Amino acid sequence: MEDRSSSKPTQTESSKSTESTKPTESTESTETTKKMSYEWVYASGAVWVPFDLQSQSNIEDVWKRAEATWIYVGSFRDKAYVNAPELYVHYLGNDLPIARRCL
């Protein structure tokens, strides 16, 4: 058998590699900014109401693919039909206008 003990990194080597992979604060804030650069909302009377974060992400994906599909909407606690090309959500027999607004 081959002795592999010499190939194991020392504690200082492993801590160096861990330190180099940690993101900097500026990187983290940039990623957060990119993730939150838009907001999906639906019309409820004269008010625009934001979807929950998971639904916003799902609607964004559907919109980027220019599709229409059923997704679970946490705000409604049920599935709703999202038609991204025509910008509406069908829920409980109603077509609710949706919009993507930049933040």
Automatic annotation (TrEMBL):
Residue segments, region Disordered: 1-32
InterPro entries linked: WWE_dom_sf (IPR037197)
Residue ranges with Low complexity bias: 7-30
Protein name per its UniProtKB record: WWE domain-containing protein
